[in-house]
TrEMBL record:
Source organism (scientific name): Thalassospira lohafexi
Protein name according to UniProt: Alpha/beta hydrolase
UniProt keyword Hydrolase present: yes
Annotated coiled-coil segments of the chain: none
Record-level Gene Ontology MF annotations: hydrolase activity
Length: 264
């Protein structure tokens, strides 16, 4: 018989809208870790479309979170509710702004096996994204932003000017793909970029890092600094890769995630 309650629950699972009390995923304790992918600002869940099938072909359950991009603390709590619903180990993967989200979401989570930072920030407690982005020269994000969209309460939504999106964000993907990404970009609030991070989970959970030398959103020097500070188990640097290294080099990103999932 048609069961509306079950249908709604199934739809919520598919969209990543999992409450802390939801039935657990991956109930088999001997199963491979579940891979939870967290996209960054000016992106969406489909930014993982090249990576996810590779992981699935390797036998991993993959969940791509619809990151709200409203605040680091709020987005981390949202992601943590999903992590807490998973029975068994989890590998948390964050791109760009998703890095601070997983850094905060994993703190105190007993089932997070490792953290993977994909062209992303790995903040220390009290640091902001804006602060880390300005720590080293090389980011052109500020000059590529469109006019802020006021939301009230002195909070604004930020978008990248579509005409500047490809050069800043996705210089090593096809023009057609970059154009679609610019259209589908999701805004982040300026509040989120200036909210101090909480305790850093990378101090207690092994981390893995991958980024490109041609990243114009986060200076490669900043990502190298953060990887070294986090005592990265492995850092992969892709020559010529842009900020969306998971789109342009999905195999390299997937390979590092598998390494993080299988590491002792």
């Amino acid at each position: 018989m048609f069961n509306l309650k079950n249908l709604i629950k199934a739809a919520a699972v598919g969209l990543g809208l999992i409450a802390a009390h939801a039935p657990a995923f991956a109930a088999d304790k001997d199963a491979k870790p579940t891979i939870v992918l967290v996209h960054g600002a000016f992106a969406a869940s489909d930014s993982w479309d090249g990576v996810a099938p590779i992981l699935q072909d390797e036998g991993y359950q993959v969940i791509s979170v619809a990151n709200p991009l409203r605040s680091v603390s709020g987005d981390a709590a949202y992601t943590r509710s999903l992590v807490d619903s998973i029975a068994g180990d989890v590998v948390l993967v964050g791109h760009s702004y998703g890095g601070p989200v997983i850094t905060n979401a994993a703190k105190g989570a007993t089932n997070v096996k490792s953290l993977v930072y994909v062209a992303s920030f790995a903040p220390e407690k009290g640091e902001t994204i804006a602060e880390l982005a300005a720590k080293f020269p090389g980011s052109t994000l500020g000059e590529a932003l469109a006019a802020p969209v006021p939301l009230g309460n002195e909070v604004n939504d930020l978008y990248i000017d579509p005409a500047k999106f490809a050069a800043l964000f996705a210089a090593d993907v096809t023009a057609d793909k970059a154009r679609l990404m610019a259209i589908a970009q999701r805004p982040v609030t300026d509040y989120a970029l200036n909210e101090p991070s909480g305790d850093a989970a990378w101090k207690n959970i092994p981390s893995f890092h991958i980024f490109g030398t041609a990243d114009k959103a986060i200076p490669p020097a900043a990502m190298e600094f953060m990887a070294e500070r986090a005592n990265s188990k492995k850092t992969v640097v892709i020559d010529g890769a842009s900020h969306v290294v998971m789109v342009s080099n999905p195999k390299a990103v997937a390979d590092l995630i598998v390494e993080a999932a299988t590491a002792n």
